[in-house]
């Protein structure tokens, strides 16, 4: 039996059963890698939880991951905070490192939807650097949200 630092005795039975049922449902789902592309307000954040639940994917939003890494004071988060405090963009290498760490989590086993990374030109090249299946080149779908400017504001 694998050791774990989580004490399941303190987890409510209903929560355990919900997670077990979710994992059983997800076991038959195909692996997916999606990149959601679009301007702010186009619906990426609205649609991503639906896509996540339907295909049992983990959802990776770089802004959320950067804030979490900074808050948790991870080594990459500390470096990202240094750049932010200077008013600089966080480098692609740091963002890629944070994405790479997140992709190794068990919740990303069936695949992922990646949002907010493609906004900067340099990051398109950076995304190719990812060791996990070269996502940008080998992703299952790139979903582009096209919305008129008047609909966004």
Automatic annotation (TrEMBL):
This protein's source sits in the domain of life called Eukaryota
Query: Which Pfam families does the entry link to?
Result: ADK
The record's annotation in Gene3D superfamilies points to: P-loop containing nucleotide triphosphate hydrolases
Q: Which UniProt keywords apply?
A: Kinase, Nucleotide-binding, Transferase
| Entry GO MF terms | AMP kinase activity; ATP binding
| Similarity-based family | Belongs to the adenylate kinase family.
InterPro entries assigned: Adenylat/UMP-CMP_kin, P-loop_NTPase
From which source organism is this entry?
Kingdonia uniflora
- Name by which UniProt lists this protein: adenylate kinase
Checking CDD domains in the record gives: ADK
EC number(s) recorded for this UniProt protein: 2.7.4.3
């Amino acid at each position: 039996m694998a050791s774990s630092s989580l004490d399941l005795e303190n987890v409510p039975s209903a929560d355990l059963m919900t997670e077990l049922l979710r994992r059983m449902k997800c076991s038959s789902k195909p692996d997916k890698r999606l990149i959601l592309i679009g301007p702010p307000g186009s619906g990426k954040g609205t649609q991503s939880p639906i896509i996540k639940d339907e295909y049992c994917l983990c959802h990776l939003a770089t802004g959320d991951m950067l804030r979490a890494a900074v808050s948790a004071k991870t080594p990459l988060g500390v470096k990202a905070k240094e750049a932010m405090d200077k008013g600089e963009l966080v480098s692609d290498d740091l963002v890629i490192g944070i994405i790479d760490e997140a992709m190794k989590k068990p919740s990303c086993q069936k695949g992922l939807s990646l949002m907010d990374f493609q906004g900067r030109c340099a990051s398109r090249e950076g995304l190719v650097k990812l060791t996990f299946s070269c996502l940008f080149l080998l992703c299952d779908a790139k979903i582009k949200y096209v919305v008129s400017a008047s609909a966004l504001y």
